[in-house]
Amino acid sequence: MTKPQEKPEFPSLFPEVIVKEIPEELPPLRPILHRIVLKDPTKLIKTPVFKYPDALLCRFKEWIDKQIAAGILKRERVPGGASMFVQAKPDGRIRQLVDLRSRNQNTEADNSQIPNQQTILSAVARGKF
Question: Taking the model in full, what pTM does it have?
Answer without folding.
Answer: 0.59
